[in-house]
C-alpha cells in the first residue's frame, strides 16, 4: 500500500514537471464561450469539462444555460480540450408531443485566436454511434414459401472503425420490453474484454451470424428461394435443444440461459436485438447499458410502441415489411448509425450475405 502511494506520487511529480508554471498575468486572460449542439439543436443543462495540458490547471466544469451556452472567464490563453458525456432530454423522433432521454457524448479541441473572447461550438453525438461493431443487416422475414419456413434467419455485423476488434466472449441478445428483459442470450466463443483474441473483425469487415449454418436453399427448397448459410462466420447453437444442427466448420454462439431450449430465432417482421461486450452476462437483471455496443429495434407496424430505451435506439426500422417476402433490413450505408433505426435502416428486396447492397 505504501508502495502504491509512492508510485502515484512519483507519476504525479513527473506529470507536473511537464507543465509550464502556473499562469502569470503575462499569459493573458481569455473568455471562452462554447455552444453545445445535438443534431440541429442547442442543448441546455449539459456539463462541459474543460482541460488543458499546457498549464498545471485543474479541470474546469460548467453547465450550459437555456441557450445551450457555457462561458469560462479569466482563463489563460491555451489550447483546451472539451469533453461532454451526459444524459439529455430531446424531442422524441417518433412522437413530437413526447420527449426522449438519451446519452450524448462529444469532445473537441479549442484553439483560441486573437481577441479576449473566443466562441466555438461543440457537437455531440448519441453514445454508441461512434464507429465500431454495428448490427448491419437483419434478415428475419423468411423466404417466399407457403409452409411457414423462417429458419434461414441471420444477422450481419460490420466493423465501421479503423481498428481490428475482437468478438471473443461478446453476447448477442434478443430483448423483451426494455433492457431489463432479456429474451435470449447467446455468447461468442472465447473470453470477453481482450481475455482471448481469436475472433477478429477487421476494419470494414462483415461477419454473418446464422441461426443455422447450412444451405437452406438446397436442403429445404430444392435450389429455389431461401439462402445458402453454409459459409456463415458463426451460428447460434443451443446445446440444451435436442435437434439444433451444428456445422462443425462454423464456430458457435452458445446459449447462456438456464432452462432455455430453443434456437436463436426472432420475430419475422419485428423484434429487438443487441450486441454487448460480454462484461455483463447476468441476464436475470437485464444487460448493463454501458456494455451495449449496438442495438436495433424493428417492426412492420407503424403503430408499434417502442420497447427498447431511447438511449439505445430512438426509432423503429422495417416499417411496412411483409412476412415471407424474402426481403431484408439493412443500414442505408455500411456502419451508418445514428441510434435511430427509422433513419438508419431500409428494407432491401433480398438479403446481402456479408456485404452491402448497392
Ligand atoms: Ca441453431
Ligand atoms: Ca457449429
Ligand atoms: Ca447504434
Ligand atoms: Ca449485407
Number of domains: 2
Q: Total number of helical segments?
A: 3
Please count the beta strands (DSSP E, at least 2 residues each): 21
**Top-tier CATH class of the largest domain:** Mainly Beta
Q: Could you tell me the CATH topology label of the largest domain.
A: Immunoglobulin-like
Helix and strand arrangement:
Blueprint: H1 2-18, E1 30-38, E2 41-42, E3 47-51, E4 60-63, E5 69-75, E6 80-91, E7 99-110, E8 117-126, E9 133-139, E10 154-159, E11 165-166, E12 171-175, E13 182-187, E14 200-201, E15 206-210, H2 216-221, E16 234-237, E17 252-255, E18 270-276, E19 292-299, E20 328-331, H3 341-344, E21 345-348
Parallel strand pairs: 1-8, 15-16, 16-17
Antiparallel strand pairs: 1-2, 1-5, 3-4, 3-6, 6-7, 7-8, 9-10, 9-20, 10-15, 11-14, 12-13, 12-18, 13-17, 18-19, 20-21
The protein binds calcium ion (CA) (4 copies).
One calcium ion binds at residues 235, 237, 246-247, 250, 252.
Amino acid at each position: 500500500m505504501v508502495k502504491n502511494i509512492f508510485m502515484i506520487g512519483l507519476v504525479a511529480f513527473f506529470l507536473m514537471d511537464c507543465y509550464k508554471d502556473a499562469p502569470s498575468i503575462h499569459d493573458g486572460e481569455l473568455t471562452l464561450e462554447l455552444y453545445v449542439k445535438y443534431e440541429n439543436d442547442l442543448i441546455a443543462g449539459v456539463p462541459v469539462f474543460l482541460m488543458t495540458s499546457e498549464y498545471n490547471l485543474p479541470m474546469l466544469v460548467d453547465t450550459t444555460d437555456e441557450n445551450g451556452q457555457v462561458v469560462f472567464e479569466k482563463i489563460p490563453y491555451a489550447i483546451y480540450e472539451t469533453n461532454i458525456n451526459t444524459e439529455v432530454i430531446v424531442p422524441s423522433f417518433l412522437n413530437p408531443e413526447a420527449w426522449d432521454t438519451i446519452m450524448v457524448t462529444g469532445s473537441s479541441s479549442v484553439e483560441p485566436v486573437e481577441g479576449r473572447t473566443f466562441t466555438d461550438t461543440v457537437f455531440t453525438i448519441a453514445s454508441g454511434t461512434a464507429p465500431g461493431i454495428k448490427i448491419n443487416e437483419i434478415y428475419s422475414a423468411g423466404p417466399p414459401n407457403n409452409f411457414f419456413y423462417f429458419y434461414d434467419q441471420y444477422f450481419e455485423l460490420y466493423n465501421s472503425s479503423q481498428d481490428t476488434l475482437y468478438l471473443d466472449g461478446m453476447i448477442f441478445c434478443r430483448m423483451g420490453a426494455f433492457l431489463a428483459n432479456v429474451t435470449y442470450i447467446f455468447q461468442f466463443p472465447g473470453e470477453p474484454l481482450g481475455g482471448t483474441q481469436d475472433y477478429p473483425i477487421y476494419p470494414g469487415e462483415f461477419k454473418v451470424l446464422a441461426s443455422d449454418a447450412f444451405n437452406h436453399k438446397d436442403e429445404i427448397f430444392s435450389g429455389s428461394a431461401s439462402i445458402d448459410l453454409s459459409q456463415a462466420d458463426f451460428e447460434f447453437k443451443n446445446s440444451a435443444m435436442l435437434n439444433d444442427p451444428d456445422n462443425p466448420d462454423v464456430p458457435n454462439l452458445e446459449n447462456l440461459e438456464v432452462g432455455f431450449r430453443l434456437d436463436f430465432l426472432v420475430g419475422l417482421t419485428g423484434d429487438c436485438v443487441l450486441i454487448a461486450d460480454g462484461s455483463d452476462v447476468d441476464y436475470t437483471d437485464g444487460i448493463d447499458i454501458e456494455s451495449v455496443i449496438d442495438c436495433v429495434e424493428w417492426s412492420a407496424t407503424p403503430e408499434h410502441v417502442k420497447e427498447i430505451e431511447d438511449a439505445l435506439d430512438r426509432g423503429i426500422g422495417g416499417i411496412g415489411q411483409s412476412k415471407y417476402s424474402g426481403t431484408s433490413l439493412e443500414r442505408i450505408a455500411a456502419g451508418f448509425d445514428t441510434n435511430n433505426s427509422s433513419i438508419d435502416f431500409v428494407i432491401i428486396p433480398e438479403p446481402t450475405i456479408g456485404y452491402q447492397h448497392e
